[in-house]
Design goal:
The protein is of the alpha/beta class and 245 residues long. The chain is 47% helix and 15% strand. Strand 5 and strand 6 form a beta hairpin.
């Protein structure tokens, strides 16, 4: 009986290894919705500018678009992605083991390097430049650089966003070495302290790179958070940001 159980496990593993991505998605669909016939699944690997994959229902068929970074990925990784995407489609969250497996694969050093290169080659940063109607981001950066970093931080590319976003106030893109700040701050009514705090926060991303460990990706490390709290009038700046929406 033990030998039969072992052989069954080997057969399952072997079938998974030799399954095509298409077959894997069809099998996972049967697992998620066992009482429903599997609709036609159209699966494509696409040259996205990031490690993104998408799924949607189109005219009674499922359209799956997977980043070409995963073309040739091990079958268990494609299986994990199938659980994540089809779970999202049917509003059934994937089991933690699949989320973990997928994140672990993307967090490998070689994959992080490939993702970084793809972002550089394919991605575009849409922005309005550093000179705004009210503020110049180059000047804001250099003032903070002098006050808090001894003028030792190399200035990345800086630009205002096209939209007046209230949800994404700023972000640092390491692939393009650029900080983009929401145009909501390029307004005489916007407190300058709030703008300076957001710029300081993004500058800290230059100082403290993302920490990668296993499947874990920590953007704001304890060192990052400790340094952030050293910003003058830290609590006042945070309060101003809350009032802006």
């Amino acid at each position: 009986m033990q030998a039969e159980g072992f052989l069954t496990s080997v057969n399952v593993a072997s079938s998974l290894f030799f399954e095509s991505p298409q077959a894997i998605f069809e099998r996972v669909h049967r697992e998620i919705r066992p009482r429903t016939a599997v609709p036609p699944i159209r699966l494509e690997f696409k040259a996205f500018a990031n490690a993104d994959s998408h799924v949607r229902l189109e005219k009674e068929q499922i359209a799956v678009r997977i980043t070409d970074l995963l073309e040739g990925a091990p079958a268990p990784v494609i299986e994990a992605l199938a659980h994540i995407l089809l779970g999202k489609l049917y509003r059934k969250p994937a089991a933690r083991q699949y989320e973990y497996r997928y994140r672990l694969y993307l967090n490998r050093r070689d994959m992080r390097r490939r993702i970084h290169l793809v972002r550089q080659e394919r991605g575009r940063k849409n922005h309005l430049g550093a000179q705004g109607a009210v503020h110049n981001l180059d000047a804001i950066f250099e003032d903070l650089n002098s006050q808090h970093f001894g003028s030792m931080m190399a200035r990345p590319a800086l630009g205002w966003s096209h939209t007046r976003s209230r949800t994404r106030l700023g972000h640092f893109d390491p692939s393009h070495n650029m900080i983009v700040i929401s145009r909501i701050f390029d307004d005489p009514r916007a407190p300058k302290l709030a703008l300076e705090y957001v710029m300081f926060h993004e500058m800290l991303h230059l100082r403290y790179p993302v920490d990668h460990s296993g499947s874990r990706r920590c953007v704001h490390t304890p060192e990052f958070k400790a340094h952030e709290r050293e910003f003058p009038n830290y609590k006042e700046a945070k309060a101003l940001l809350r009032k802006m929406w």
